[in-house]
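Subject: Re: docking follow-up (magnesium ion)

Dear J.,

Thanks for your patience while I sorted out the input files. As discussed at Tuesday's group meeting, I've set up the holo structure prediction with magnesium ion included as the bound ligand rather than trying to dock it afterwards. The sequence and the ligand SMILES I used are pasted below, so you can double-check that they match what you have on your end before we go further.
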Amino acid sequence: MMSARILSFDLDDTLWPVAPVIAAAEESLFSWLKERHPRAAHGHSSESMRQLRARTAELFPEQGHDLTFLRRHALAQQFQAAGLAASLADEAPEVFFAARNRVELYADVRPALTRLHSRYRLFALSNGNADLERCGIGDLFDGHITARAAGAAKPDARIFAQLLIAAGVRAHEALHIGDDPLADVVGAMRAGITAVWLNRDSREWPQQFAPPERTVSTLAEIL
Ligand SMILES: [Mg+2]
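The structure tokens for the complex came back this morning:
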């Protein structure tokens, strides 16, 4: 921590609980579909669209890190199956994103990040596709590395390498904080970056991984 020059943060389930956000975004997408393109919605639900997306992910394992691609491709197929133009799916990402970025930050996030930002450069490092500006936290970050832009998702070392390049620091000068034992903690440690496991709800550390160097239960503890 003493030698850290930059801090990187996971987003989903680190800065806000993600399950309600995704559920609301999927519902909002389905409502849009029912209203605007009822033929494509016919016989579908948010759940069946999720299954369609999971099958798309199996068909395109090399695109697994690109959730926007998977969502768009699955929807294009849904339009085609209903005898409609696949290009109608082009509007859908915007519908989804509008809801996807309506996040509710955990209470500790803004106070802790505001203080940390006065001492460190802060980066977001995310496998998801949240937009920092639209989430209302763009002012707290100096950069955002996404799996989509890096071409690889955490725990892949390539996304951590992109972080170091973007920040212009070496591995020992970075500290990564996140909730996911494999993606955030094991991934960062494999890339030579000190990792802090954010364990908000007293989960057990998975036995199969070497234990994290540091564990906190709120971001306030990082201060
Ligand atoms: Mg997370």
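A couple of observations from a first look. Residues 10, 12-14, 178-180 surround magnesium ion (CB under 6 Å). Residues 6-17+104-222 form a domain with the Rossmann fold fold (CATH 3.40.50.1000).

Let me know if you'd like me to rerun anything.

Best regards,
T.
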